[in-house]
Amino acid sequence: MDLPEQPWPTGLAQQLEPLVRRVLAPNPSPFTYTGTETYIIGSGGELAVIDPGPNDPAHIAALMAAIRPARVTAICCTHTHRDHSPAAAPLKALTGAEIAGCAPLVLDALGPRGDVPFDATYAPDRVLVDGEQLRGPGWTLTAVATPGHTSNHLCFALEESGALFTGDHVMGWSTSVVSPPDGDMAAYMASLEKLHAREDRVYYPAHGDQIDKPRQLVRGMIGHRRQRERQILKLLGAGEGEIAAMVPRMYKGLDRKLWPAAGQSILAHLIELQQRGVVVRDGDFWALAS
Fold first, then answer.
1. Cβ–Cβ under 8 Å, residues 272 and 186
2. At 256, phi and psi to the nearest 5?
3. Is 64 within the bounds of a domain?
4. Number of folded domains in the chain?
5. 242 and 192 in a common domain
6. In this predicted model, what pLDDT tens digit does every residue of 207-223 receive, in sequence order?
7. Active site residues
C-alpha cells in the first residue's frame, strides 16, 4: 500500500478526544506505514503512555514536550517489536513511571520482520494479564490479551470513552503480519473473534488512521483470513504445495519486498490447518491430508 502524501504530523501532539493525544514517531517503513503512533492518556496531572515507540531522541523529546508539566505514572507496551517498546526505558528514566504491559519476549531477528526484531531491552516492572487495570485521575485502562501477531500482544481499553488501543493486532491500512514460530494464526483468529464480541466505539492502532467502525472492520478481517485459507486449500488441491509459488498467485500486485511477509502468513495458515488435520507437510512441500 502506498504511503499518504507528506507532510505527516511527525512529532506533533494531536488531540483525538478529551483523554487521548497521539504523537507520530519518525520511523516510516513498509511495515510501520507513516510510523509508530504513541498515545498519551489522561487530561489531568497523571498520564499513561501507550506504545512509547522506538528509542529515537527526537521522538522522546516530542513525547516529553507533550507530557510536561504533567506526570507519567504508567508506560504501557502492546508488544515488544522494536518499533513499539524501546523508548520505554529512556522514558522511564526521564519520568520515573513504571513500565506496565505485555510480557517480555525476545526471539532471533529472522524472517520478514528482520527490520523490526524483538526488543531485548524491554524490562517491565509489572506484567498485565487479561482484564487487569491501570488507573489515573479520570481514566482507566484495561488490558485485553490478543495473542496472534505475537504471543505477548495486548490491547488496552479506555473504559471512560470506549476506545481500544489495538497495537498491531488490528490496523485499518494493512492486515497484521502473523509470522511463525511466535506468530500463531489460530490464536490470531481467536483474538479477532474476541474483539468482534466486544462493543468498543473506536480503535486506535499503532500504525495508520483510527478505525471508526471497528466491529465491521474486524468482521471483514475474519472473512479475509478465511478467504486466504480457501485460496490455500484450492492451490493445494491443484498440486501446488510450495509457499514460494503460492505467494505471487495469492498476492497479485503486492510489492516483491513484502513477499517474505506474505509467505510467513501463508505458513501460519498452513500450520493451523496442519493442527486441524486438514493438511500434511513433507519438508517444504504441503499437501491436503488424504
1. yes
2. -60, -25
3. yes
4. 2
5. no
6. 999 999 999 999 999 99
7. 83
28 prior amide bond cis, ω within 30: no
Q: Residue 80's closest CA among 198, 161, 167, 18?
A: 167
Would 6 be classed as within a structural domain? no
Residue span of the structural domain in which 191 resides: 13-223
User: CATH number of the domain that 73 lies in?
Assistant: 3.60.15.10
The answer on 219 and 236 residing in a single domain is no
Nearest to 149 by CA among 199, 189, 116, 114: 189
pLDDT tens-place string over residues 137-193:
999 999 999 999 999 999 999 999 999 999 999 999 988 989 998 999 999 999 999
**pTM of the predicted model over 0.90:** yes
Q: How many CA atoms lie within 13 A of 174 on its CB side?
A: 22
Query: CA gyration radius for the chain?
Result: 19
Handedness of CA 108, 110, 114, 118 (dihedral sign): negative
CATH of residue 255's domain is 1.10.10
